[in-house]
Amino acid sequence: MLNKNSKKGKCPFNRLKPCSELCILYRKGVRFNEQTDENFPFEDCGINIIADNLEAMHNRTYQMQKEVGDTKNVTIMKILQDIGKVDASEVERVAMKILTPPDKTKQIK
């Protein structure tokens, strides 16, 4: 994502002059940070705001697809255990790998 703490950038449509309130693409408002649950003011070009929103949507979609894939893998392992093709310890290992936070996954073998 773009640096939210930076001052107004330079406009690529105006021969790299500083962004101005006179520009039709200039936006000023408040943003919400989903990770920290806090609001912060911003002033930026509408093009940058669109790019930020697309990036955030992509990240959410990627995370949702990853979670669905993880759920599918655990379900398949459980079915394989139920029919006797996989040991219960293997199902537990896969489930723990998914349920453990990323910084602790190195401890699981």
Question: Which keywords apply here?
Answer:
alpha+beta, two-stranded antiparallel ribbon
Helix content: 40-55%
Described by the principal axes of the CA atoms, the overall outline is: rod-shaped
Compute the CA-based radius of gyration: 23 Å
Helix tally equals: 2
Structural class: alpha+beta
- Major sheet strand order: 1-2
Strand portion, in percent? 15-25%
One letter per element, helices H and strands E, the order comes to EEEEHH
Characterize this entry briefly:
The protein is of the alpha+beta class. The protein has two helices and four strands; from the N terminus they run ββββαα.
Structural description of this entry:
The protein is an alpha+beta fold and 109 residues long. The protein is built from two helices and four strands; from the N terminus they run ββββαα. The strands form two sheets. It has a two-stranded antiparallel ribbon with strand order 1-2. α1 (46-82) packs antiparallel against α2.
Question: Topology of this protein?
Answer:
Elements: E1 10-11, E2 17-18, E3 26-33, E4 38-45, H1 46-82, H2 88-99
Antiparallel strand pairs: 1-2, 3-4
Helix pairs in contact: 1-2
